[in-house]
Amino acid sequence: MTIKNLFIQMLAAIGLSVAVFAQDISVEQYQLGAGDQVKVTVYGEEDLSGEFEIDGTGKIGMPLIGAVKVGGKKLAEAEAAITALLLDGYLVTPRVNLEVMNYRPFYILGEVDRPGSYPYVNDMTVLNAVALAAGFTYRANKKKIEITRKIDGVEQKITVDITAKVLPGDIIRIDERFF
Predict the structure, then answer these.
(1) Which of 61, 84, 110, 170 is most buried, judging by how many CB atoms fall within 10 Å of its CB?
(2) Is there a contact between 166 and 147 (Cβ–Cβ < 8 Å)?
(3) How far apart are the C-alpha atoms of 41 and 105, rounded to whole Å?
């Protein structure tokens, strides 16, 4: 557990929130999950390359090596796992590249006109997500927006503003305001 995650958990335990919650997650830090569609390229081996969707168990089914657990791993970790399996009696020097073709959807609930699941778009904010869901209802509390996100396998909830970044798999909840 990182110091940042420990700090966020400590603040949450005493009822405070941090609006900057994991907004600085880059492509290198992104953890793959169920619903992501990835392209695996094994250089010089077109039969082993292809596009795969990560299933509910976090695995992809690759030719020759079978099911490979990539869910919960960063891109570099997933590449290393595939490389290790290919090295185990199949290829002498495999060179593997992995890229995300389509991210898993995010979810928006509560006081929006069309709650539900929506496809993720790069560099999305909460305001963009609300726009996809046809806007706030008249009862929406625009100052109390909660995002639930898994970070290092731990589900965390945090109150954010409309400028907060949204990541694939996030669950955004817009609460009702009280007059």
Answers:
(1) 170
(2) yes
(3) 24
| CB distance 104 to 167 below 8 Å | no
The CATH number that applies at residue 52 is: 3.30.1950.10
Structural domain of residue 76, as residue ranges? 34-102
120 and 140 in a single domain? The answer is yes
Same domain, 85 and 110: no
**pLDDT tens digits along 128-154:** 999 999 999 999 999 889 999 987 778
Residue with tokens 């292809």: 50
**To which H or E segment does residue 99 belong?**
strand 96-102
Written as six digits, the tokens of 60 are: 């992809």
Mean pLDDT (whole number) for 9-29:
49
The residues near 119 (Cβ < 8 Å, ≥ 6 apart) are 102, 103, 105
98 with 130, same domain: the answer is: no
